[in-house]
Amino acid sequence: MDFYKVIRTRRSIRSFKPDPIPPDILERILDAARISPSGSNRQPWLFILVDDPDTKRKLAECCSRQMFIAEAPVVVVVCGFNIHYNRGGYMGDLSMLVDCSIATTHLILAARAEGVGSCWIGAFDNNCIKKLLGIPEDVNVVAVVPLGYPKGDAFVDVSVESRKSLTDIVRLNRFDGPGWSR
User: Fold this and answer.
1) How far is the CA of 135 from the CAs of 79, 97, 117, 120, in angstroms?
2) Own/partner pairs for 50-55, CB < 8 Å, 24+ apart?
């Protein structure tokens, strides 16, 4: 699928068919996350696949009780290893979040390219998930991503929805510089 079509039609899916994701498709999706870039190539991530129905239900409860998560055939819990490294300023400890976010973005875009729906879940209780899945103390949950085939016609072009213009979000040379235009 054309890359620009992937990014224009990727949206958060909150209703899934029970159909399993074939192993070869799931592997391609996970491999897209695996090969994503990270600072100094540290790759500070681990992906936990949750497919057990009871564990998915408990996981959904840890995610502000968003029970649609438990509907997905598989849920990916993106874990980040805390980096105690000073890259200069505040980005040392926070760089793990950036790296894992890049990997999660690769994962959800690859899912869309495969016709698989996803939803990036950021509302969750880190300690609840860590206890449920046996995640060590020095590792934190960065994202929870249910994956599955969407119910209905879910992949529509999001670029036609209300989005800020480039002029509103791009500045030239300075924060207070003029907006970008062609």
Assistant:
1) 8, 16, 26, 20
2) 50/74, 50/75, 50/76, 50/77, 50/133, 51/75, 55/132, 55/133
DSSP letter (8 states) at residue 12? B
The answer to pTM > 0.90 is yes
H or E segment to which residue 128 belongs: helix 126-133
Q: Determine the distance from the C-alpha atom of residue 154 to the mean position of all C-alpha atoms in its chain, rounded to a whole number.
A: 18
Strand partners, 50: 75
Helix axes 53-62, 126-133, angle to 10 degrees: 160
pLDDT digits (tens, 9 = 90+) for 98-117: 999 999 999 999 999 999 99
Q: Give Rg (Cα) of the chain.
A: 18
Tokens of 129: 């998930």
Q: How many CB atoms lie within 10 A of CB 94?
A: 12
Q: Encode pLDDT of 8-46 as tens digits.
A: 999 999 999 999 999 999 999 999 999 999 988 999 999
**What tokens were used for 19?**
């159909």
Q: Which CATH number fits the domain 3-169, given the four candidates 3.90.79.10, 3.30.420.10, 3.40.109.10, 3.40.630.30?
A: 3.40.109.10
Distance CA 14, CA 117 (A): 8
Note the pLDDT of residue 162: 74
